[in-house]
Specification:
The protein is of the alpha+beta class. The chain is built from four helices and four strands, in the order E-E-E-H-E-H-H-H. Strands 3-2-1-4 form a four-stranded antiparallel sheet. Strand 2 and strand 3 form a beta hairpin. Helix 1 crosses helix 2. It is elongated and about 70 Å long.
Length: 137
C-alpha cells in the first residue's frame, strides 16, 4: 500500500471540476466532483507506480509539509490536501493483466523434467522476473 499527499483544487465551473496535483510525482489530472477526483488521483498514482520497481517508488512527503498553495492549480480555486492510498499489487492485477506471448529457450532435458513434474514454466518465469525486477509477488 502506498499513500501520497494530493492537492485538490475545487473550481467554480458548472461541472464542479476538481483539479488534482500530486506533488511527489509531479502528476496532474482532474475529476468532476470530489469523488471522481479521488478516483482519478488513485488511477494516476497507480498507473505511475506500475511503471516502477517497488524499490524505486518516490518517497511520500509528510502531509504537514505539503502546502496547498504550492499546487500548479492554486490560482484556480480553493485547494486542500488529502492522503490518497493505492494498493499497487492489486492495481497491477486489476489494470495490467493482459498477457503477452513470449518464446523462451530451454534445454530439452530441463523441459522434460518440468513436464514430468507438472511445473508451470510460465508461472516460474513470471515469478523469477518479478523477483529480478524487485516487484512484489
Amino acid at each position: 500500500m502506498q499513500i501520497y499527499p494530493v492537492i485538490f483544487t475545487e473550481t467554480k465551473d458548472e461541472k464542479e471540476t476538481v483539479l488534482v496535483y500530486i506533488p511527489d510525482i509531479n502528476g496532474m489530472t482532474e475529476g468532476y466532483g470530489i469523488y471522481d477526483a479521488f478516483s482519478m488521483a488513485k488511477d494516476y498514482i497507480g498507473n505511475y507506480l506500475c511503471t516502477k520497481a517497488d524499490s524505486s517508488f518516490p518517497v511520500p512527503t509528510p502531509i504537514e509539509e505539503v502546502v496547498p498553495e504550492s499546487s500548479v492549480f492554486a490560482s484556480a480555486g480553493k485547494s486542500s490536501v488529502f492522503l490518497v492510498d493505492v494498493d499497487v499489487d492489486s492495481f497491477r492485477r486489476r489494470n495490467k493483466s493482459r498477457y503477452v506471448r513470449r518464446n523462451i529457450s530451454l534445454p530439452e532435458w530441463l523441459d522434460e523434467m518440468a513436464v514430468s513434474e507438472k511445473i508451470n514454466v510460465s508461472e516460474v518465469t513470471q515469478n523469477a522476473l518479478k523477483q529480478r525486477l524487485g516487484l512484489s509477488t
